[in-house]
Specification:
Elements (H helix, E strand, L loop, with lengths): L1 E7 L3 H16 L3 E8 L6 H7 L3 E3 L4 H7 L4 E4 L5 E2 L3 H11 L4 E5 L7 H4 L11 E4 H7 L6 H5 L5 E8 L1 H6 L2
Parallel strand pairs: 1-2, 1-4, 2-3, 6-8
Antiparallel strand pairs: 4-7, 5-8
Helix pairs in contact: 1-2
GO molecular function: transferase activity
Keywords: Transferase
Protein name: Glycosyl transferase
């Protein structure tokens, strides 16, 4: 089982896009719960999370969030990111056979313009991070956010693609 965790701030529509992709994974029994960590949103992010059955936190300690996760694996993603076809089966197989973190492949259809890719470090959660819960708890420190936890993590690359969150944000 998998717990999906996202951090948001005034990202109601992006949150809804990501949550809609997760419905089929919940039906398949892969996603057991979704946790949304809020940074003072003033939009309807809490209503979207509540309607989708997510746990929504305004104040949290990352270690407590990880310990309270139902899944033995965590999927850290940005609101607005959308996983593409085939990801559910691949993740099910991956977590059954592996113990190291993994990231999704970049979408072939959504790439930053050439000059914006040159010399730019890829943000740590641009393609998500699938990580064992025990490893995440070990790495977590009080006050840490998901991006800092994901920084520098060596991860395998899954074949399934992810459309990064910046695509949804640029469509605003």
């Amino acid at each position: 089982m998998l717990t999906v965790i996202m951090e948001c701030r005034d990202q109601e529509s992006e949150l809804a896009q990501t949550l809609s992709v997760l419905v089929s994974a919940a039906v398949e029994g892969l996603v057991s719960d979704v946790v949304v960590l809020d940074h003072g949103s003033r939009d309807g992010s809490s209503r979207v999370a509540d309607a989708a059955g997510c746990r929504f936190h305004n104040h949290w300690d990352i270690k407590d969030i990880f310990r309270g996760a139902r899944g033995e694996w965590l999927l850290l993603v940005e609101p607005g990111a959308r996983l593409q076809a085939g990801w559910i089966e691949e993740v099910m197989e991956y977590i059954a056979l592996n113990r190291q973190p993994a990231r999704f492949a970049p979408s072939r259809n959504y790439r930053r313009p050439f000059f914006k890719r040159i010399g730019r470090a890829v943000p740590p959660l641009e393609y998500g991070l699938l990580i064992p819960k025990k490893q995440a708890i070990t790495l977590a420190k009080s006050g840490m956010d998901l991006e800092n936890l994901a920084k520098g993590q060596k991860a395998s690359r899954l074949a399934s693609e992810m459309i990064p969150a910046w695509v949804a944000a640029s469509a605003r």
